[in-house]
Amino acid sequence: MPVERFCDLPAFWAGETVFILGGGPSLPSYDLSLLVGRPVIAINNAWYARPGAEYWNEDPPKAPGPWPVCFFTDGPWWDQYGAEVAAFPGLKCTIFPNRQLPAVAHLRRGLHRIVDEREGWIGYGNDGGLNAILLAQKLGASRAVLLAYDQRTIDGRHNWHMRHERPIYEETYDFLYQPGYHDVAPRLAELGLDVVNATAGSALTAFRTGDYRDFV
User: Fold this and answer.
1) Residue 129 near residue 141 (C-beta atoms within 8 A)
2) CA–CA separation, 41 and 146 (whole Å)
């Protein structure tokens, strides 16, 4: 049965630039020290990405990153990593609808591949990267800067770490993930969210590109 208790998060980042740490192979290439103290959503395992540390080699993680929010969207991820994420001191939130997880804010999962404008609801796509952008919009952000949104393999790798057990096939990006970004991009712009893909070499073309260092 779906959980019955949900959390309504206020727009606590109203007018802010929010940085979103994706799971792509390029994540270790960024100077994350520039983001400390800023609004950051860390998707899935990016919760333990830390400035100046070889965090990509840690199994299990030695320490959490200094980010305000860890966001995940599926139960199997929690089943594999939930015990570790307990060490994360920031806000842990999800739109996974079927279980009440300990110390996690459950948000209402709304319309598929649509910017759900109902109060208390968040639209969702087929990957956590799109869902995190929709979360940033709900939290009031005026700009979302995307890091490690590679949407492709690099040197045969799909993620910045080697811990995921579930395989991802190359065609998944083109046919399952990316269409959702193109679906929501026009409405996000109309609502005032400037989405900047700051991932060099990204295969994602739904948003304008830029350098994350220009927004810190």
Assistant:
1) no
2) 10
By CB neighbour count within 10 A (0-12 exposed, 13-18 middle, 19+ buried), where does 64 fall? buried
Instruction: Specify whether the CB–CB gap between 80 and 96 falls below 8 A.
Output: no
Tell me: the pLDDT tens digits for 168-191?
Answer: 666 777 778 899 999 999 999 999
The answer to whether position 120 is within a domain reads yes
Is residue 2 assigned to a domain? Answer: no
Query: What distances in angstroms separate CA 95 from CA 69, 105, 192, one per listed residue?
Result: 14, 9, 23
pLDDT tier, 100 (very low <50, low <70, confident <90, very high otherwise): confident
Q: Number of structural domains, the chain?
A: 1
Q: Does a structural domain hold residue 3? A: no
- Lowest average pLDDT, out of 54-63, 163-172, 198-207, goes to 163-172
Q: What are phi and psi of 144, to 5 degrees?
A: -125, 120
